[in-house]
Design a protein that fits this description.
Helices cover 26% and strands 23% of the residues. Strand 4 and strand 5 form a beta hairpin. Helix 4 runs antiparallel to helix 5 and helix 5 runs antiparallel to helix 6.
Length: 248
């Protein structure tokens, strides 16, 4: 009788533990996403804007974190997309924003009106990237249009690569969340980030997605722990294009 009682007690205990496990939020350690940074891939630049000294410069943007490009420590992100999206943390500001994309021959420039909301934003660029070509980009908060040395800026690089057949086969039937993991494992940062942001934007309260987001930003090759709790701004609060220019 005692043996039967113990078996029933253990059965009830296991049911409680495993039956309610779905209520326990995921942690970063339990998240599946792992970004594998490509070896030897590096680009010059700065992904975090420098600090301000004068009161005027400090008032140009408000927030605990400075302007930051959401890229790995290598300062370069790979993409398979012809028209990829760049991601930045933009602090609260009323100043104009300027995004510049350069290749060996030309410079493409877009200016934006800030929404005056601080948070992480996605910024598409209307320039088709060529496969195998590396492009330099920079984003600046133009604090004083008459004195551009006062800009707060970040800069880095992006490179478009071909999608390997094996990866393409897996992506064909994958969900946005699964695509984020597949791209991360392949070292394709921009597409992994874009896929995860897409999932989070659709399900902002999903505990597993939040854990994936934390794991991606805090991974060893990324180290953007300070941005984990910053909000993802919806489309209506993103910077709006003012002008687009191209020059040789």
């Amino acid at each position: 009788m005692k043996s039967l009682y113990k078996q029933r007690l253990w059965a009830k205990l296991l049911f409680v533990v495993f039956g309610l496990s779905f209520l326990i939020p995921f942690t970063a350690a339990e998240a599946r996403i792992i970004f594998k940074a490509p070896e030897g891939l590096q680009a010059p630049g700065r992904r975090i804007a420098g600090g301000s000294r004068s009161p005027q410069e400090k008032n140009c943007s408000l927030g605990q974190n400075p302007l930051t490009a959401i890229v790995p420590n290598s300062n370069i992100g790979l993409t398979t997309q012809a028209n990829p999206t760049l991601f930045f943390y933009i602090p609260q500001t009323s100043a104009t924003l300027e995004l510049v994309l350069r290749d060996q021959d030309k410079e493409y420039k877009q200016t934006y009106k800030s929404s005056e909301k601080g948070g992480i934003v996605s910024i598409p660029f209307n320039k088709a990237l060529e496969v195998g070509k590396e492009y330099r980009w920079s984003l600046a908060i133009v604090c004083n249009p008459k004195e551009r040395s006062k800009d707060k800026f970040v800069e880095g690089a992006i490179k478009r690569v071909k999608t390997e057949p094996q990866l393409a086969s897996k992506l064909a039937t994958a969900t946005p969340q699964e695509r984020a993991n597949l791209y991360a494992e392949a070292g394709i940062w921009q597409d992994s980030l874009a896929s995860l942001v897409q999932s989070l934007s659709s399900n902002p309260s999903n505990a597993e997605l939040k854990a994936e987001w934390q794991a991606l930003l805090t991974s060893k090759s990324v180290g953007l722990n300070n941005l984990v709790s910053e909000p993802l701004l919806p489309d209506q609060q993103k910077p709006q294009v003012i002008t687009t220019n191209q020059s040789n």
